[in-house]
Known about the structure:
Chain A has 253 residues and is of the alpha/beta class. Chain A has two domains: 90 residues, no CATH class; 136 residues, Rossmann fold, CATH 3.40.50. Helices cover 49% and strands 16% of the residues of chain A. Chain A is built from eleven helices and nine strands. The first copy, chain A, is globular. The two termini of chain A are 34 Å apart. About 7% of the residues of chain A have low confidence. At the A-G interface, helix 9 and helix 10 of A face helix 9 and helix 10 of G.
Amino acid sequence: METREVLERYKKGQISLDEAESFFRKAPYEELGDYAKLDTHREIRSGFPEVIFCSGKPDEYLKNIYRKMYDTYGEVFGTRASKEQYEIIAEIIPVIEYDPVAGILKYERTDKERKGLIAVCSAGTADIPVAEEAAKTAEYFGSKVERVYDVGVSGIHRLLSRTDVIQRANCVIAVAGMEGALASVIGGLVDKPVIAVPTSVGYGASMHGLSALLTMINSCANGIAVVNIDNGYGAGYIATQINRMGVKNQEGR
Amino acid sequence: METREVLERYKKGQISLDEAESFFRKAPYEELGDYAKLDTHREIRSGFPEVIFCSGKPDEYLKNIYRKMYDTYGEVFGTRASKEQYEIIAEIIPVIEYDPVAGILKYERTDKERKGLIAVCSAGTADIPVAEEAAKTAEYFGSKVERVYDVGVSGIHRLLSRTDVIQRANCVIAVAGMEGALASVIGGLVDKPVIAVPTSVGYGASMHGLSALLTMINSCANGIAVVNIDNGYGAGYIATQINRMGVKNQEGR
Amino acid sequence: METREVLERYKKGQISLDEAESFFRKAPYEELGDYAKLDTHREIRSGFPEVIFCSGKPDEYLKNIYRKMYDTYGEVFGTRASKEQYEIIAEIIPVIEYDPVAGILKYERTDKERKGLIAVCSAGTADIPVAEEAAKTAEYFGSKVERVYDVGVSGIHRLLSRTDVIQRANCVIAVAGMEGALASVIGGLVDKPVIAVPTSVGYGASMHGLSALLTMINSCANGIAVVNIDNGYGAGYIATQINRMGVKNQEGR
Amino acid sequence: METREVLERYKKGQISLDEAESFFRKAPYEELGDYAKLDTHREIRSGFPEVIFCSGKPDEYLKNIYRKMYDTYGEVFGTRASKEQYEIIAEIIPVIEYDPVAGILKYERTDKERKGLIAVCSAGTADIPVAEEAAKTAEYFGSKVERVYDVGVSGIHRLLSRTDVIQRANCVIAVAGMEGALASVIGGLVDKPVIAVPTSVGYGASMHGLSALLTMINSCANGIAVVNIDNGYGAGYIATQINRMGVKNQEGR
Amino acid sequence: METREVLERYKKGQISLDEAESFFRKAPYEELGDYAKLDTHREIRSGFPEVIFCSGKPDEYLKNIYRKMYDTYGEVFGTRASKEQYEIIAEIIPVIEYDPVAGILKYERTDKERKGLIAVCSAGTADIPVAEEAAKTAEYFGSKVERVYDVGVSGIHRLLSRTDVIQRANCVIAVAGMEGALASVIGGLVDKPVIAVPTSVGYGASMHGLSALLTMINSCANGIAVVNIDNGYGAGYIATQINRMGVKNQEGR
Amino acid sequence: METREVLERYKKGQISLDEAESFFRKAPYEELGDYAKLDTHREIRSGFPEVIFCSGKPDEYLKNIYRKMYDTYGEVFGTRASKEQYEIIAEIIPVIEYDPVAGILKYERTDKERKGLIAVCSAGTADIPVAEEAAKTAEYFGSKVERVYDVGVSGIHRLLSRTDVIQRANCVIAVAGMEGALASVIGGLVDKPVIAVPTSVGYGASMHGLSALLTMINSCANGIAVVNIDNGYGAGYIATQINRMGVKNQEGR
Amino acid sequence: METREVLERYKKGQISLDEAESFFRKAPYEELGDYAKLDTHREIRSGFPEVIFCSGKPDEYLKNIYRKMYDTYGEVFGTRASKEQYEIIAEIIPVIEYDPVAGILKYERTDKERKGLIAVCSAGTADIPVAEEAAKTAEYFGSKVERVYDVGVSGIHRLLSRTDVIQRANCVIAVAGMEGALASVIGGLVDKPVIAVPTSVGYGASMHGLSALLTMINSCANGIAVVNIDNGYGAGYIATQINRMGVKNQEGR
Amino acid sequence: METREVLERYKKGQISLDEAESFFRKAPYEELGDYAKLDTHREIRSGFPEVIFCSGKPDEYLKNIYRKMYDTYGEVFGTRASKEQYEIIAEIIPVIEYDPVAGILKYERTDKERKGLIAVCSAGTADIPVAEEAAKTAEYFGSKVERVYDVGVSGIHRLLSRTDVIQRANCVIAVAGMEGALASVIGGLVDKPVIAVPTSVGYGASMHGLSALLTMINSCANGIAVVNIDNGYGAGYIATQINRMGVKNQEGR
């Protein structure tokens, strides 16, 4: 109902003064407040429900938010969860599942269809926790994920032998620590966007992932953009945004 | 001609031993070399022809590559070009056009249709050169672009008043120097991927764009990924990759 | 008593040689030493009694200083206190109160009037410990504080819906980790000074708060100045200095 | 005119449908856009007209903005102006004045009263350009300024001999490069806020002001907050905000 | 026994061919090896016996070296010792003394005269461990030390009131963390060398002492040189070298 | 079996069409996959079997890989192993040996001949763990190693007295933390390649080895190249590559 | 003449006391001084004559050293030479040759045989100046060099198609700026040492080559060591040291 | 004249009220002001007259200060002077002398005796400008200086052959860029204080001298302290302070 329509219906008496006022009274920011609520609905519809960053959350707060999310959506998804947090949540949500490698603590409905394709590539076995955070996030958001692990550039044939999978994906997530060169090589092999995730894997001059971050930001390959160190969740999120466009496209055909 | 066919034709004597050998002798990498050539064709087809990074190129080399690109594709596009380089190229390609703000030196066919929508947002007027590099790159690659400039977060209403445009886009490019906070605010307003471009605009502790880069990498908003400082071209490229998915999707409907 | 008066009184015998000597003997720096004592008095009068930085203080020292402060002023205020330190002090000052979130260990007189208004804004829930250190410090120093928490820029409407409170304050404290963009947005919304506090909240390229610090220092908004990472106390202190000017002004009207 | 009043007057026919629509049609953000315009007015009233950052602005743009500001406000103020820019502007605004040390290019009305007191302290003679940018900015915004220059901490008596001036001010600006220790010493001498400005003065490990910035951010004195390296303008702005509170207070008495 | 003497005594048969050969056979570097041994003697004579850096040394190794030093010199001095290491050494050298603040684990002869004067100044109470490492090192090497603690620049009068002591010293050690400005102020008060010791005291942007190090290196005062963060031992060593020159001078007069 | 041979044998019917096809069908990357396997064989032949980076590996994974390596090669070599990991592996491979200083967990055949010469020099005793990682790695790969420890540049004669050993080596590994100057001095003494290994030994401004790394990278001596901080393994590997060339050369003579 | 021989000849009167004394009187360091002279001879013999770092050398000094080198050795080699320096030297050595890309200013004898094989690989065309400095340095020192340019990892097939050349070399030099990933990929393809040279090519977060340096230092491939940014000369030098071992080996067979 | 004496003489009428008042009226800081003047005298007496840092000084200012210094002291000494500044000063002080290598612009009385001994060592020829700034500063302040140049650690024998000179000095200044290892080696050869001066000589990872600074700060040799990058003046100053102690000592004997 647009401004003019409200005014006309109000003059005609179809809506009361109070109703008209309530329509317009929304201060700009209160309307934004409303927008936020609507947005929440939209998010649920679009498949991006809120996700819980567990690390550092007090136990009580974590329990409350898990219970609320679970009750509201019928599913719940948290990242960076510890084994202790798993045990706490398991007491109130017995169906909860915990992946100690990825630190994912979730209950996911089994009737969700996963669409499109995201390839999650990782350089070394030590990068797998971050890669799994990305993969499971993307899956929770409804993306189909293919894992291509242990394909670091120091043994380039391992990556090349999986080129077909990587090229089929709507979006590729490249997870690497140490020298972080994986993203550049993948960027040269595919014509879809590559989301690069530096990891804190390494020692010495890796500076907790800063070296890998710089490598990826400086990539001379086209079609690469970078998220924060160890931010598997962030990569899974934006990759899903991209994948959905591809999915709609493929469905439209 | 496939492997089996070659083998059968060879046994039948339709091709000689030498011919068969030459077919299989291709070392894997030589076959990759072939692949590269095919890939070039694919790039032309898919609308990502090569682009010239002009800065620092010797004059002779620049002239050769501009002429070759222009002759081959009927159009040519270069970034980071100086006024001197413009004058040099203008002698051999009189139709060439130069945008001194963006540093773009190009001739673009006028019959290209621009599809989808990318919103290019910039924080301050000093960020416009990078924003224009992004915008013109995306346009050259066939994307429709809406410019939303001078919407820095220190006057947040300027950005908010353009929310509708930003939300319609398939992808948003957020260009900002100094504190680089623009990307986070946009990330909270849209549900499409945001490609953040830090710029070297600023002084003092901006450290030539490093501060803005860190800000953007640390963004707590979802759906943001970052390219190198001042890398408008890179942002225009990946945004076009994303936009094309949205375009196909919209066409498919 | 001024120099000339002392000299005249001394000559008249109204004060002895020893008395005159003791007046003048004060070496310049010893007079400064006296000044320091007077200053302490002035500080008490002006409402800035000493505050204890508890972290790392040996137990005995901490007990002595708490007891001395409590005995002298009737109240005592410490920051960065651990639960163990709370238990130690509680043995000697049973009325002591401990806030485990802010790490504040204090006993505050209940008859203090809080004046003016400082708005303490924080970006995320993880920033609340620093925000509370700032808020409680300002309150201890006599400022009225309004808390505006969880208004990070990635959901800008949350902040905008509280604009009225923020604009009423004599000074705004903006507490944020990760990308630290909150200060710039607030700086554009108010015409009062904004004291920005970067926090060490974040991971990866947040570099323990350095990224947020750089963001805030580079802010393109007017009226922003920055204190050290996690320095809630420092922000509460300078904000109170500013708030008092506003208070006097408002009282003067 | 509030929402309810508009609705009632509209129903009574006192305002037309178009008039009512124009009142409500303002989308939240468009209303913010209006707000921005009003804000501009408020800024003029409150004495914070826009200021021009000259460095890097194209000549044509600079001329347009100077002429517009001059025509609108009867005065105009720009920072980081070069001698060349002065000559360009002098052609169109002959009364313009240029301070080559501070890089200030301005025409200021002579009938403005300067109120309160800001002390601008600088460590070395090489810091004077930044100190003057701060001082002249504060003066342009209506603050009375006392300059206390060449009082670096390596000759502490120079600073101590001016303590009286510094202690009278509502706000102190401390400008220092190299080791940047000035702010801490001043912070210990006054009970008013100190705005610290690191400068890029120095060489070697001063790292273009980063060392001074770190020194100031780490100050163990109370009541200190920091702005960007060389940001005299920013310091003059926030100091004026603080000074005005003191002025009102003093006027109120 | 000099070259010529050896040759002559050899020709006269006073020493055998083998003896002469063994004198000259020393390869240049083996002679250096001898030199090193002689140097050890010289060091003992000159009062710089070896000192043990305890941190990280395996227990067995620590016991062996303590016993050897104690047996050889009748005294022994170690820095960065833990309480556990104290207990281990106390078993074999019951007279050993441990200072838990400075981390010094030593037995020092009581008949040593301490000469000259080194002033060890520290900014805050948290800097005292490093200051004590410097002071005790200098004392062990025979310097008389005056401690001037808690004289940080944010309360400059505390330092100024001790100017006389500081000016009497042959060398001043300035120990400070956080902003590290103490060295510059002292440098302006004395005409003797100042050895600056940054400490890792601080938080946030202090970056474990790097900020203080940069402050001190950039000092604009004359006569200041800097040692590594927390390197009290190094400061005590070089200050003793300087002090000894002053001592000899004073003795010579 | 080479291309031509396969073709000829196929034509002669010695291998079937399917067999020939399977030979050639290998996609380039699958052939690379095969190559990788062949390469593994070659590595075993050439003495560079895989080595296990133990740190952070889950227990089950570690056990599997140790057992597999041990069963396959009859020997096994792991770096960065903890005492706990030793105990776990000792249960399944009782002959395993653990060096707690170097963190090496290995079983090495006793019949291996060690050839050529690598000199492993280290600056301080605290650098020995990294030096031993390098030395034992080189020995495992078949190099003869001479250890030249505790030859830091602050007592240059210690190094000079060992010049002969260093000059005999085919490659020198220089291991140093703190100021890392050892590599430059050695580089000036020998005419063979020097592999420099910065270590994380130090404190304060050593920044966990970054200072030593920078020192070594900036070395003005010829013939020096650098590996990552604490990367003894990497140095042992490349030094062995170099040593083998020298060995063959010496054998060839 | 050895120690014993001198002693015996002296006793027999074959040499005088003065002669014997002069033999032994050489202080260790003076003997080192002699050694240095001998070393110079050895360097000439071994093919590592001195090379001139031209950048920043005053004209007169440059002329003297070029003339002296040319007169002494009959050839001369300088790096980082400008066109102006070329013109200055061409006046005194007309046969001098200048390569403006590599900045090499040399006269090289034409009768030198180049042995072994070093592969110099570079990522982008902008890296060629550094690659050429490495290649020409290695050639001047007598190595045969194969150039493999423009094989950056973002088009990995370009590198793979040249694998045969790279694998034949005794040592590979990998030159790359921007993300610097080339070294890791090459390291995985060859079993010979790889000398990695980061270049300052790039912009933004490349930080003048620091990013590429970090990438290379963190390489997870075996057999890689790194030299300073843009240090083509250093890479050519150490690669030649390694190549010579391979050459001798191949000659020995 | 002490406090008590003044009081007594005043009472006795030996000094007037005004005279007594003027003695005591000095406010602490005004007295400090007086102290400063006296200090200036003392500085002249003690041989540390003010020195001019020419770089960046406006021409008029430079001329005034040179003339004033020259008129007052009969000599004048400036550092970091350009050739242009030399020509400007030469017009007003024709006897002025300019050293273009060190950037020293001075007129020095010829009747000054230079005492004691400072050894100024530099690593490479490119470090000589900084070394000369140190040497000439020390000479201007009355120290005898021995230059030991081009003794970088990559050819350690060059340094060792000059050990005798270095060991005779009261203080050694070690000037080095690139890897900056010179200070550590010298520190191990002498028992006198070593003042280390990192220089900005180098390229790539030298980071304008920061690498050399870190090397020197991390030195594991005893008796080393560091001044700012390229701060030859500062080294010459503190070395003279130390040398004077040695001089007095030697004179006293």
